[in-house]
Amino acid sequence: MKRLLVISSLLLLGACSAEPGSGKWCAAKKEQPKSEWSSADAATYARRCLLDGTAVGSADWCEELSGKDKGEWTTDETRSYAKHCVI
C-alpha cells in the first residue's frame, strides 16, 4: 500500500512539470536566470525555442513528427506525440 502511494505521488508530481521543449517550458526558461540552466537546458532551449520554433506539442511539431518515419521516433517523441497530438 505504501509503495503504491509513493509511486502514485511521483507520477502526479511528474505530470505537473513542463516537458522540456514545450511552450510552457520555453516560457519558464526565458524567465529563469541563465546561470541556473544546465547544458542540456541550453541545448533544448536553443533547438526548440529559438532555432526551429517548433515547441514540443505545438501543431507544427505534431505535423513535423507525423511526417517522420515512425521507426525513427525516439521513445520521448513517441510519448510526447501521444500526449500532445493524439489525446
Could you explain how this protein is built, in words?
- This protein has five helices and no strands.
- The relative contact order is 0.11.
- The longest helix has 15 residues, at 2-16.
- The termini are far apart.
- It has one domain (18-86).
- The chain has 87 residues and is mainly alpha-helical.
How would you describe this structure in keywords?
87 residues; mainly alpha; 5 helices; 0% strand; globular
Brief account:
66% of the residues lie in helices and 0% in strands. It has helices spanning 2-16, 23-31, 39-51, 59-66, 75-86.
What is the overall pLDDT average?
78
Q: Given the helix and strand composition, which structural class is it?
A: mainly alpha
Instruction: Provide the domain count.
Output: 1
Based on CA atoms alone, the radius of gyration comes out at 15 Å
Number of helices: 5
Largest sheet: none
Poorly predicted tracts of residues: 10-14
Distance between the termini: 30 Å
| Strand/helix succession | HHHHH
* Tally of DSSP β-strands: 0
| Helical percentage | 55-70%
Can you tell me the overall shape? globular
Name the beta content range: under 5%
Would you spell out the secondary-structure blueprint of this structure?
Layout: H1 2-16, H2 23-31, H3 39-51, H4 59-66, H5 75-86
